[in-house]
């Protein structure tokens, strides 16, 4: 049975207590601190099982982590229904704003950790791992690269990244083209592009209409998603994710589509978008990346060049970065195979473990 996390609030644009942070585990010296940010359409609950697993000390293993969970502003169903647009901007939040919110969540997480271990005589070594899923991965990319390039936030600069089911481009200064020369990188097919774009356009258009009328926005959402998912059969996900992707609250679901709206606003800007910064870190030895993804989807949400780059890092022993493909999972692999995800993350935090594929019947990674 899951234990109740400690609940804290932090400021977001327009609301001094609108950000929510759940903390699992007890603070201790020389333990890993993990901050998780999910994506669409997740609040704080889906990751709770894995969070508690990682916060628990296992026999013969490293002590439990100090695990914080936050989400995009307005994505927590309970607080959204309590405050709606009085507490959350009707236009949603930009990726820059969400990144700042997650930084504030990190500040709060470390502040609470320091309160509990300040009286300890042991040296407090708090290695920081940023874990993200779905749209949260965009925030993770922005967080780490800006922390490095701006030479700020160094106290809470992530030491490692765990990215789940979404992975963006390699860093433009990484010379990845030369590194991957001779490797056959699979390019997205026309259907892959159609699967990726169709639902994003539907969600973005629905949110745009919401700015003028909630009732009409709900109608547009219903019509467009019916066309995309039911008539054209362009669902990027498979049945394994069916229940996890559903919501009983359509009004809240509609509001949570704001990242798609802001994505297209960024793309239409042309030059100097957040996606120019939202890439893998330049130095993967300094900031290693564990990327895990589920194979049971109709389209993958990662850039194949980045996957190949991380696989090269592991194969040639260049860094602790690696890729794990979960054959029996879909988009929410941490709900479908939490034990596998826990084992892979624990190995990554220790700085070891093989990569490749993993399944519930074989919790050891294999090449």
Automatic annotation (TrEMBL):
So which domain of life are we looking at? Answer: Eukaryota
* Residue stretches spanning the membrane: 216-234
InterPro entries listed in its UniProt record: AB_hydrolase_fold
Which keywords does the record carry?
Membrane, Transmembrane, Transmembrane helix
Q: Does the keyword Membrane apply?
A: yes
Q: Which SUPFAM superfamilies match?
A: alpha/beta-Hydrolases (SSF53474)
Return the protein name: Uncharacterized protein
Which lineage?
Answer: Eukaryota, Sar, Stramenopiles, Ochrophyta, Bacillariophyta
């Amino acid at each position: 049975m899951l234990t109740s996390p400690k609940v804290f609030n932090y400021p977001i644009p327009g609301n001094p207590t609108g950000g929510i942070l759940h903390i699992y585990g007890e603070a201790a010296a020389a333990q890993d601190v993990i901050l998780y940010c999910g994506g669409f359409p997740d609040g704080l609950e889906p990751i709770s099982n894995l969070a508690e697993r990682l916060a628990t000390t296992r026999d013969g293993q490293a002590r439990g982590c100090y695990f914080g969970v936050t989400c995009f502003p307005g994505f927590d169903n309970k607080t959204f229904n309590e405050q709606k647009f009085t507490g959350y901007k009707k236009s949603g939040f930009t990726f820059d704003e969400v990144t700042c919110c997650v930084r504030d969540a990190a500040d709060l997480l470390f502040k609470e950790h320091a309160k509990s271990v300040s009286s300890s005589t042991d040296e407090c070594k708090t290695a920081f791992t940023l874990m993200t899923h779905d749209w949260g991965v965009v925030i993770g990319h922005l967080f780490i690269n800006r922390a490095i390039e701006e030479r700020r936030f160094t106290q809470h600069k992530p030491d490692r990244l765990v990215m789940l089911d979404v992975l963006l481009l390699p860093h433009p200064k990484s010379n990845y083209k030369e590194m991957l020369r001779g490797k056959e990188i699979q390019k997205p097919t026309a259907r892959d592009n159609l699967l990726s774009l169709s639902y994003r356009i539907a969600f973005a258009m629905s949110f745009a209409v919401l700015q003028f009328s909630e009732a009409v926005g709900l109608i547009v959402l219903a019509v467009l998603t019916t066309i995309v998912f039911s008539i054209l059969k362009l669902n990027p996900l498979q049945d394994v994710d069916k229940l996890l992707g559903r919501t009983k609250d359509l009004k809240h679901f509609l509001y949570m589509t704001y990242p798609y709206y802001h994505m297209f606003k960024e793309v239409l800007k042309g030059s100097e978008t957040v996606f120019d910064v939202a890439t893998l870190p330049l130095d993967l030895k300094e900031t290693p990346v564990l990327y895990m993804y589920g194979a049971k989807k109709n389209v993958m949400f990662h850039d194949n060049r980045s996957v190949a780059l991380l696989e090269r890092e592991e194969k040639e022993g260049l860094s602790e970065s690696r890729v794990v493909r979960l054959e029996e999972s879909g988009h929410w692999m941490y709900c479908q195979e939490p034990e596998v995800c826990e084992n892979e993350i624990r190995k990554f935090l220790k700085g070891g473990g093989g990569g490749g594929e993993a399944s519930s019947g074989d919790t050891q990674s294999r090449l």
